Amino acid sequence: MKRSPERVLASLMILIFLGSFRSTIVIFLSIPLSILAGAFGLMMSGSTINIMTLGGFALAIGRLLDDSKKGPANHLHGQPGPLRYRR
């Protein structure tokens, strides 16, 4: 896999803010795997890559990065996740 500056910067951001090497590795690998899965889904459905598809990929990667920061950060600070209920 070729390292792109975007992947390196995203992984560096996770490492700096969370201080977790495991979270850094997970996000470093999840970005290209999610793009490959999306491209495979497009290929299997016979769709083409156009501006709308690229916009969807950008939104999905942004959401992936955002969720990858929130999950471990909530766990480290002892806050319940989205599936737990507060009483």
Helix content: over 70%
Count helical runs. 3
**Number of domain units:** 1
Task: Calculate the terminal CA-CA distance, rounded to whole Å.
Answer: 46 Å
Question: Average pLDDT across residues?
Answer: 76
Describe this structure in words.
The model has no long low-confidence stretch (mean pLDDT 76). It is built from three helices and no strands. 75% of the residues lie in helices and 0% in strands. The longest helix has 26 residues, at 51-76. The protein has one domain (5-71). Helix 1 runs parallel beside helix 3 and helix 2 (21-45) packs antiparallel against helix 3 (51-76). The chain has 87 residues and is mainly alpha-helical.
Provide a concise account of the structure shown.
With 87 residues, the protein is mainly alpha-helical. 75% of the residues lie in helices and 0% in strands.
Features:
mainly alpha, single chain, 0% strand, 87 residues
Topology:
Elements: H1 5-18, H2 21-45, H3 51-76
Helix pairs in contact: 1-2, 1-3, 2-3
